[in-house]
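Standup notes
- DV: blocked on the single-chain target, sequence here:
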Amino acid sequence: MDFHTLSKNYEKEYLENVMELLKIPSVYEEDPVYPYGKPIHDALEKMLSIGEEDGFITKNVDGHGGHIEFGDGDEIIGVLGHLDVVPAGAGWTTPPFETTIRDGKLYARGAQDDKGPVMAAYIAMKLLKEQGFEPKKKIRLILGTDEERDWKGIDYYFKKETMPSLGFTPDASFPVIHAEKGLLDSYITYTLPENEGETKVISVQGGDRLNMVPDEAAAWIESPLNIYEVFNEYLAQHKLEGTVKSTGGQYEVKVKGIAVHASKPEEGQNAITALLRFLQSLPLNDEYELFIQNMYKAFESTDGEGLNVKQMDEVSGSLTSNLGSIAMDEHTCKLGFNLRYPVSADYLAIDQKLKDLAAKNEGTYEVFDHLASIHLEKDHPFVTTLLSVYNNVTGEEAKAKTMGGATYARALDAGVAFGALFDDSPDTAHQRDEHVRISDMIKAIEIYAESLYALTR
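- DV (later): unblocked, structure below
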């Protein structure tokens, strides 16, 4: 089969289908009828109706998920994607749910994460079906509905449906992600010491998502000092952006950072830690100043050294740490942080060290979410098959990779992330003006079609 030529023949149909899907603003909403809101329900129904019209077997699993499949046999090869998206946010060049094509790129919320890649996988299945291919295993495209929140949809789905023997998710990058680090979201809450000095920190606020490096943090300060002068000197010294103003007898200081995904915190600029560094330089009460210093030292480094959990392995690299949120008033301080730990790490040992750290300063430690690491060996036949197809299509000699992100591969007993971004693809997921290159999606169709062919013939 000439997958290269065939995939190009489906570009028009791919665009027509995906543009209709992208018009649906499938952001989570509270709803008394639909598990994740009417828009997500509509996206699921739209995708299933496309599959049904094309002659596939489809199933809606109580609104929590669904699948599109063809082929025979007891074994299932799964492809897991999701139809929910994060809120669009402001600042888009064109409306986020009015799909736009500019300069060979497809713009819309969900174009990259994950509706565009899901549709590429679907078109790959349709290509095989229309070429008369009869897979000896079931090929099942599983449609998730709650990936951007807490995965309740996919959990519900697998309580009702058979787990594939192997599977991949088109929700990351090529060539093959054979291991994903463990992911831990936690909170530590402290009771603050008394601050009786002339300079007082009244409150601090910053960040609202633990999986993103915060790009803004603010503090409200009472002080006889000229905080305008002190803060602007600090910004200049550390080459930071920020603002300071006086309101209601207090100073409001605000630091701007650079937001990036928490899987690579070293590539961003954490506004909260930058603000804590400034606060510790103020003439605060001794005990209070020591507390601020301890918070800063705990999260100054993104490798976990300040938390006493620094480590790495050869498979997946170094542990990463991101201070994602802070909510502090005159009495308490709540810190939220995200860790991505190596696949060989001992989670229970990490958990204990974090409990010890909290207890050292009389704080309480709470785990909000934990996803264990996953790892298929590089020489696993599933990994080598996918990698071989990728290299055959691209002419590369790429090797399997690892990452700190979390994908639906973790929902499988044996799974990997496989595309749909290439090394030079723009990574715009969760950002304004999210987009994909159309040529990347057509190449992904080729790779997925050939991979599913190789896995099920």
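- Follow-up: Residues 438-456 form the longest helix (19 residues).
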